[in-house]
Every structure is written in C-alpha cells, then in structure tokens.
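Q: Is it fine to ask for two folds in a single conversation?
A: Yes, each is treated on its own. Send the first.
Q: Here.
A: Result:
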Amino acid sequence: MLFSLFLLAIGLVYSIRIPAVQTWIVQRVTAYLSDELKAKVTIDAIHIEFIKTLSIKGIYIEDQHKDTLLYAAEINTSIEMFAPGQQKIYLSGIILNEGIVKIQKYPNEKGLNFKFIVDYFDSGKKDSTASKPFDFNPGEIALTNMQFVYRDNRYNDYFKGVDFEDIRLLNLNATIQDFKLDEDTVFASIENISFTEKSGFEIEYLNHLQNSLL
C-alpha cells in the first residue's frame, strides 16, 4: 500500500511536468484569477519543476480600467510556503524579465490601481471570519530590462523634465528587498538601480535607495 502511494506521488510530480498538463493548469489558473479579480489575466505558459519552482512565460494582468498593470515576458520564482488556510504565501524571490509595471491613480478612486488585488486578499472573501490580513512575502525581487510607469491621472498638466505625476523608467534594472504594501503606499529597499527616464534623465548606477515609493 505504501509503495503504491509512493508511486502515485511520483506519477503526480512527473505529470505536472508534461506540457499538456501544464497547459491545462494555465487555463484553469487564468480563468480562476480573471473571474475572482474581475480583471483580465493571461499566461502563455507555466513550467513547473519539483512542485515549488515556477517559470511563468508571458504573464499579463490588467487593472480594472482595462489598462496594463503588469506584463512580463518571464517570471521565475520558488515557493517557500504555500498555506492559504493560514493566509500565508512566502516566496524565495522573484525574477522579472522584459516587461512593464504600470502603477496609476485614477480620478475619484482611493488608492492605486492594484488596490483591488490587495483588497481581495485582505477581504476574507472565502472566509468571512478571517481577521488577519494576507501575509505575502515575495522575497528579493530582481528586475531585468523592465519598464516602470507611475501616472497620476487626476492631473493633466505638462511639466518639462522629470514629471513626478507621469514617470516612465526605461531599461530598468534593480534589486528590491523588504517589499511591503500598506494601503496605497509601497515600501521597499532598492539596490543596484539603473534606468533612463522618458525625459532623458539617466541613472547609470545607484547603490541603494530606501523609502516609501508612492
């Protein structure tokens, strides 16, 4: 009996590595997330190694105004703890390659455009008795050749040079640690930063930056 269970476990592990099974997982995951978040989520492919190691290809997430919130050609991560019952997900780190993150504020709305995701995990949607906020720790986040956009759509004035209400960082490379969300504020410690802002302002290398970002 134990040997049969062992073989079944091995079979499940290897079945997850079969492309057809991974495609099925992608379809189910994106349909579920799109329905739950009420926002479009698509993924081209997921490659799973040893259950906890994930490589996600072509992930796209819209905000609730149907604009891009996140696109990445590739995201790699490993799961340290996955305990939805305890409202905990810990990752060993995330690597984002070739993509864009767009953080926006919209008129007559509180918070930033990812607030609906934070609210979903903190709302106790599946368990109305839950009182603890969702504990998500992404670990170290590495950005490689990314774009970062911050836009405050409540204002439409033109500003020559770096416009802090309409920022676009190109060719962004950085390492992010101690990433935390507190309602509409992002806290992080950022190291090894390089980018070019759309105004032409360029940072070739900045060793360390620690503050609330938005």
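Q: Second one now.
A: Result:
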Amino acid sequence: MFVDARAIVSMMAGEDTADSYEAALLEAPSPFTSTLAA
C-alpha cells in the first residue's frame, strides 16, 4: 500500500479522515511512502 503525503498530513492534523487512514495502514501488509513525503 502506497501512503501519500495527504494521508500523513491528515493523521498528523487529526482530520476527520485520519481514522480511516490509520485503520488502512494497520491492516496493510507492507505500507510504504516516497522519501519526499516522509
């Protein structure tokens, strides 16, 4: 699962979509992102 910057920002900011992103990340077998987003 590719994690883009908007998902990371959403979780850091505590936005409404943060919970669904967090759940998807916890269930993903191997989440990854680009070095620019990290």
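Q: Anything structural to flag on that second result?
A: Two points. Residues 1-38 form one domain. The chain is about 50% helix and 0% strand.
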